[in-house]
Structure formats: C-alpha cells, structure tokens
Amino acid sequence: KMASFPTFSRGIVLAVLSVTTAEALTGTAFCTSAAAGVGAISAKRPSCYSPRSLATARMSALGEEDKPLQFHKGARKALKELSSMVPVVIAAASLGMAPDMGAAMGTPDLKGTPLQRTGSSFVVEGVPRIVDGDTIVIDEGKGGKGERVRLLGIDAPESKQVCKEKNGKEYMCGIESQKKLQQLVGNDKVKCLANKRDMYQRVLGVCYDVRTGVDLNKAMVDEGEAIAYVQYSKAYLQDEQDAQAKKAGVWRGDFEKPWEYRKLKRQASQQLKSTVKIPKKKDTAAKAPPADADVGDDELDDAPQ
Less CB within 10 Å around the terminal CB: N or C of the chain? Predict the structure, then answer.
C-alpha cells in the first residue's frame, strides 16, 4: 500500500511501526506505553499522541521536521490495513518462522538421542559419502580424505551381509541399508553432533539432514534398516520395537544382528588362520580404513562407543 502515498518519508514508516495498538492506527490517540517508545522527543512531550502527531515527532527525532507531511486520500484506509497485519507479523516473528524451515534449522534438540545427557562438544558438517548404513564420510576431498563418522547408538547390516525374506529368499540387506541412508540424505548437507571419537578416531555422532532436520540415526532404525545398538545406548530401542511391529526393513524376515554377523565372521577368519599360516603384519596398530574405501567398517563397528 506504500505506493498509494508516495510522499511519505521514512519518518512516517517508522512511526507506523512504532504503533502498538490497532486503535492508534485507526485514528485514536494512544498514551504512555506507545508514546514511551518514541524516545525523548521533547522536554514537554504530551502524554498522548495521535498518529499524525506521532509521525511528526518521529520525523523531528530524525532531523526531518522540515519535510512536508502529507496524508493522501485513502491513507487512513491503508493504515487500517497495516494495523490488521501487525498481529500476524508479531506472531510470525515469535514463532521464528522463515521461508525455508529446513535451511533455518539451528542446533537440533538432543532429546531422545544417545547425546541427551552428555550433550555435544563439537560439530561436523558437510555433504557426506555413504559408506554403509551407519557410516559416512564428510567433506571428502579429491585426495580421498574426510571426517569419518559412525552414527551413534545404531548398528546397520554390514556391506556384504545377507538376510532372508519371509519366504526364505536371500537378499543383500547391507546394500539395502546403504541405499536407504543415501535416499534419506540425497545431496543434502548433514550436521553431526558429537562428544567423542572411538579407538579408530571415527567421530561418534548423531547426524541430521540440514535441509529437512531429520535425525538420520533415528530414521534408519524407524525404517528397519538399522537396529538399536543396545550394548551402548537404548535411545533408539522404542524406534526398533516400532519397526519390528510393522515388519519394516530387516524385520520382514530373518537376519543376524550386525554384531553377531561380525562375531561369526571373526570366528571363521580365526579358524582359517589356524589352518593356514599367514605372515603377521609389521604394523598392528588399530587403523581406520581409508576414507575412499568402498566397503563397510565390519571389523571397526565392534569398537566401544
């Protein structure tokens, strides 16, 4: 409506914004609280102001009192319409509304996550590469380096793990889990909140999609593509029970829990070593695989969280 009264100076606009009641905008003089917002306009300022006197006072405070003040035809109608908008603007501001709620997401609430009690001491953020259903690499550069993050409190099927459908048919549940996490993230940035690293220097974190605000740890368990890592946290146990009830993901058939699968794999490996002599490696220090590895962290995922 500003186009309907083009000669209004910025003093008029500020005056309108200073008004706190609809009555003031419709012509009724207002007192004390609204007037106090104008500031020390004069030593003998009146206790009440009309819209016109308030506008003049505001212009005076800005050093623009010499500029003509003209109320065009229809200006009062425009002011009434502006007054009807004030409560809406105030309500929107109080709710923190923004055009893109996902993009405006701040630090997510840690309630219901493994970090609820401890909080987070650092943040890792960027576009991830999905290694498997519970491992990502953030900000992977051309050199293949990046921050390896293990989703805290959950355990997903390993990359080569095989599960069974209800009818007994086998499928690659590890690959399915990886694809589900990729689907949840897409090309979005993720923000991972963490308070520690594991023995392999992987960040142990609760990760969120920056655009949508989705808790990726929770979502993977909700979808049945990961299970609660109850040895270290029961934060997602209810989500696991919900997924099991609706037979989502791995719960639609039979599967070995990821830690059981890794245990059996280690036992098979040890049995093989006992029958076949394998030269010992010189460097036995625990190391994480390179960030550009195309396999999951099978042997690393049993590291204490």
Answer: N
Active site residues: 150, 158, 202
- Is residue 296 within 8 Å of 181, Cβ to Cβ? no
Question: Which amino acid is it at 278?
Answer: I
Strands (E), the chain: 30-31, 48-49, 122-126, 128-132, 135-138, 147-151, 154-155, 163-164, 170-171, 190-197, 203-209, 227-228
User: Could you write out the DSSP letters of every residue in 132-177?
Assistant: ETTEEEES--TTS--EEEEETTEE---TT--EE-TTS-EE-HHHHH
Is this prediction's pTM over 0.70? Answer: no
Q: What is the dihedral of CA 7, 11, 15, 17, to 10 degrees?
A: 90
Domains of the chain and CATH, by start: 2-94 (no CATH), 122-275 (2.40.50.90)
Pull the structure tokens for residue 205. 């974190």
One digit per residue, the tens of pLDDT, for the chain of length 305 reads 444 444 444 443 334 334 333 443 344 443 433 333 333 333 344 444 444 444 444 444 444 444 444 444 554 554 455 445 444 333 333 333 333 333 445 667 888 999 998 888 999 999 999 999 999 999 887 677 899 999 999 999 999 999 999 999 999 999 999 999 999 999 999 999 999 999 999 999 999 999 999 999 999 999 999 999 999 999 999 999 999 999 999 999 999 999 999 999 988 888 787 777 666 666 555 555 544 444 456 656 666 66
* Dist CA 272 CA 278 (whole Å): 9
